[in-house]
Design goal:
Length: 283
């Protein structure tokens, strides 16, 4: 069941990022982040209120602070990467997260993947490596390294992948000390407030994007958070995040359909990642 939750979360977050790529053509990053995260917080608080606010266990507020800091940095880097690079090029770099997660989940949570789970994670990373080959339209093994060294957006997304190898561990700790909705609602609220303050300080105006579109992007973000947080309660963080990375394939397809990007070999690489996710599910 956790595999289904994480997969649906992947679909939602891919749609969310597609909205971001579209909005960032005309909107200020800080204004956009503030509008989306405050809207997501409102939705999550509403769901949490309907279910009944949870009892908060010791350490909740300290963990929340750490999670928010990671989120703020990762969001800033992600938005910048989406501004300067193809959607279907930078999003697959998030597949590096599970590799980092093997180490961070063991250190922070004591979770150790099985051999099959590790094999699945390796396949996901292999798919990401192949994606880099298209940067120079060849199949030479060194091309992905050239792409990583030369493209600013790719380097930014690699940093995001590293941050997301640590952040989800604190998100799971938030879930364990509250529930799948309330902890994420608080995190979204503080992220939204932080970007609102930054926007006001810069004198930015309100977003020109349709409020309906902003709400849809926020709804996809909130839905993904709830679904993945539920998956966290059922399995290891490394497994849940690896399956969530199926958003890569969805992002590649959206990049081709919505933004007319060249996706040929990226689809093949994405399918390899899906095989890795299936291995993880049956590990």
């Amino acid at each position: 069941m956790w595999f289904l939750y994480a997969s649906l979360g992947a679909l939602c977050i891919a749609g969310h990022y597609a909205f971001l790529k579209h909005f960032l053509r005309t909107e200020d990053k800080d204004v956009l982040a503030a509008a989306i995260f405050l809207s997501a917080a409102l939705l999550l608080f509403s769901f949490s209120w309907y279910r009944g606010f949870p009892h908060l266990h010791d350490g909740f507020w300290q963990i929340l602070l750490i999670a928010v800091v990671f989120d703020i940095v990762a969001i800033a880097l992600t938005y910048r990467a989406l501004e300067v690079a193809d959607f279907s090029l930078v999003m697959p770099l998030l597949a590096l997260t599970p590799i980092f997660l093997i180490a961070t989940s063991w250190l922070l949570l004591g979770e150790i993947p099985t051999r099959r789970g590790v094999a699945g994670i390796v396949l996901i990373v292999v798919g990401a490596y192949i994606l880099g080959c298209q940067r120079h339209h060849t199949k030479r093994l060194r091309d992905p390294l050239i792409a990583l060294a030369s493209h600013h957006g790719v380097r930014l997304m690699m940093l995001v992948a590293l941050i997301y190898s640590i952040g989800p561990n604190f998100n799971k700790l938030l879930v364990l000390r509250s529930d799948p909705m309330f902890g994420q609602a608080m995190a979204s609220l503080f992220v939204g407030i932080a970007y609102s303050m930054r926007s006001v300080a810069k004198g930015n105006r309100m977003p020109s994007a349709s409020l309906v579109h902003i709400f849809l992007a926020a709804s996809l973000l909130a839905s993904s958070a709830i679904l993945v947080n539920i998956a966290f309660t059922m399995t290891n963080v490394a497994y849940a995040i690896s399956v969530k990375r199926m958003s890569i394939l969805f992002s590649i397809l959206l990049g081709g359909v919505l933004f007319k990007e060249q996706i040929s070999i990226r689809i093949v690489a994405g399918l390899i990642m899906i095989v890795g996710a299936v291995l993880i599910a049956f590990s």
